[in-house]
Design brief:
This protein is an alpha+beta fold. It has one domain. It contains four helices and seven strands. It has a four-stranded antiparallel sheet with strand order 2-1-3-4. Strands 6-5-7 form a three-stranded antiparallel sheet. Helix 2 packs across helix 4.
Length: 148
């Protein structure tokens, strides 16, 4: 009986630890959550980003450039994933490494680098044809932020 209870306890602890490690981004509480980098209140629903650690800790950002700068300047060894908000569908999260980015002076972002994120290339291209600008991938965004 004691062995059975111990096995049950180990199982419960294991399941709890697995469930507690967050894999996916969580909703930003606009107007209340603060950016982990610049400490401004996150308010624009078409922008936003999250960094999630292996342990499930979530860092929220008001812009792509804030997350990129924070990631670049912080000694993270346990990043699980990076996420951005899809500008064309603000309830959709996109993995940062797979997103398409538009830098357009006609689309100001909260921190002034004019970056917006899109889930697919077609939508990003369509927005670029309307707003003008340059399409970037995640590595190019990181390089751009490094030059700032």
């Amino acid at each position: 009986m004691l062995n059975k209870n111990r096995n049950l306890l180990v199982f419960v602890i294991l399941i709890t630890s697995i469930v507690s490690c967050q894999n996916n981004p969580e909703a930003i509480d606009y107007g209340h959550d603060d950016c982990a980098h610049c400490r401004m209140v996150i308010s624009d629903k078409k922008f936003g980003a999250e960094l999630i650690t292996q342990k499930g800790k979530i860092f929220k950002f008001d812009s792509i450039e804030c997350m990129a700068s924070y990631y670049r300047h912080t000694e993270f060894t346990d990043v699980q994933s990076l996420w951005t908000i899809d500008f064309s569908n603000p309830v959709m999260w996109v993995k940062a490494e797979g997103a398409y980015y538009l830098q357009s002076k006609n689309l100001p972002s909260p921190m002034g680098m004019f970056l917006s994120s899109f889930a697919n290339r077609e939508t990003a291209e369509a927005m670029r044809s309307q707003m003008e600008g340059n399409l970037l991938d995640w590595q190019e965004v990181m390089s751009l932020v490094a030059k700032k």
